[in-house]
Write a structure and sequence with these properties.
Oligomer: single chain
Helix content: 25-40%
Number of helices: 13
Structural class: alpha/beta
CATH superfamily of the largest domain: CoaB-like
Length: 411
């Protein structure tokens, strides 16, 4: 399965004849749906031009510190990336990474990023076999860096041996595999996402500003963790994640009906949709014409999807979302108790967070514990959220209860 759709990959290109293969790698990544940004070392531009990578990636290419226009671009790129792949990784670049130097823009980004790092070595066979290179690689591997290759064969210098950069197709697969955790393998998840629309008349509705980005990110993260995901989505401008079964609905009642139709044999239910709290009692059959004076619209409570699922006799493990403007922890804990669910993921809205944004931050609360997920792209938060859900769900399956963790922690 292609797990790269929508993923943010930073490709580092260091100096070496194999740099020409990196252009094909960018093309393959884009074809797989990944978002790609390229950072070159100054030496790399002697083999392939930045313009080539810019044309293939559709993004500005950075080569050295003079391209760090704000002085903080390298930090932004470090936070943006979900994976960093250095391909080709020259002997000099491996030494730089192993010793924690930041004398190139690429090295500084790698040093400042918390994203998993992959390297694809490419160098002369003698350089590859040298004790210094072996030591540097061992150091990087101890830190969790994934080394891809190298392959063995004829080299540009005419010698034969190990040191050829892995083929772009192999590196593409390595990147895709790096997103597959298997934490939810064999489980069925039903996830709701996006807003709902409650009809006032044939042309008007009550709705909210939800873009669905968080729910869709959670669906992708759950899929990457090996789950079979069924996504019930309100009206959004987002493509269905590959490998996820999606059904589109509009109203809260339609969303509830779609969820109940899919909840059988569901292991985990994640209610990430921003469902309307109220709906018009009697939607007009024809367009309501503008009138002078005041107009009153009578509302009634809309279906409570999370509470309904949580009240089922053989219900799944349930996670709800809460968007708040104040007293985040208090309201999150009250909602968890009121809905009777295992976890609430709560966030404040406003100040560039919450609805219709790419970034967010979350407070996860469960019985006896909580975890703060610092501000980050929603895709990264989704991975952290799914990991926490997997931990708690696994524990509950062995103890028949949600684990207590009196020690508050953050990540």
């Amino acid at each position: 399965m292609n797990l790269l759709d929508g993923k943010r990959v930073l490709l580092g290109v260091s100096g070496g004849i194999a740099a020409y293969k990196s252009a094909e790698l960018v093309r393959l990544l884009r074809a797989a749906g990944a978002l790609v940004r390229v950072v070159m070392t100054p030496a790399a531009s002697g083999f392939v031009t930045a313009r080539t990578f810019q044309a293939l990636s559709g993004e500005v290419v950075r080569c050295d510190w003079s391209d760090d226009r704000t002085g903080m671009d390298h930090i932004e790129l470090a936070r943006w990336a979900e994976r960093i792949l250095v391909a080709p990784a020259s002997a000099d670049t491996l030494a730089c990474l192993a010793h924690g130097r930041a004398d190139t823009l690429l090295a500084a980004i790698c040093l400042a990023s918390e994203a998993p790092l992959l390297v694809a070595p490419a160098m002369n066979q003698a350089m590859w076999r040298h004790a210094a290179t072996r030591d540097n690689l061992a150091c990087l591997q101890r830190r969790g860096v994934q080394v891809c290759g190298p392959d063995t064969g004829e080299q540009a210098c005419g010698e034969v041996g190990p040191g050829r950069m892995q083929a772009p197709e192999m590196l593409l697969q390595a990147l895709s595999d790096s997103f597959a955790s298997g934490r939810l393998a064999g489980l069925k998840l039903v996830i709701t996402a996006g807003p709902t629309r409650e009809a006032v008349d044939p042309v008007r509705f009550l709705g909210n500003r939800s873009s669905g980005k968080m729910g869709y990110a959670v669906a992708r993260a759950a899929r990457d963790a090996g789950a079979r995901v069924e996504l019930v989505s309100g009206p959004v401008a987002l493509a269905a994640p590959e490998g996820v079964e999606r059904v589109l609905v509009e109203s809260g009642q339609e969303m509830l009906d779609a969820v109940l139709a899919r909840i059988t044999a569901c292991d985990i239910f994640i209610a990430a949709a921003a469902v309307a709290d109220y709906r018009p009692v009697a939607p007009a059959a024809q367009k309501i014409k503008k009138q002078a004076g005041e107009w009153t619209l009578q509302l009634e409570p809309a279906p409570d999807i999370l509470a309904t699922v949580a009240a089922l006799e053989n219900r799944p493990w349930c996670v709800g979302f809460a968007a708040e403007t104040e007293q985040l922890e208090l309201h999150a804990r009250k909602k968890r108790m009121h809905k009777g669910v295992e976890m609430i993921a709560a966030n404040l809205v406003g100040d560039g967070l919450g609805f219709d944004t790419d970034d967010n931050e979350l407070l996860l609360v469960w019985e006896g514990g909580e975890r703060h997920l610092a501000r980050a792209p929603k895709s990264r938060l989704a991975v952290q959220l799914v990991e926490q859900i997997a931990d708690l769900y696994s524990h509950s399956m062995t103890t028949d209860e949600t684990p207590a963790d009196d020690a508050k922690h953050s990540a």
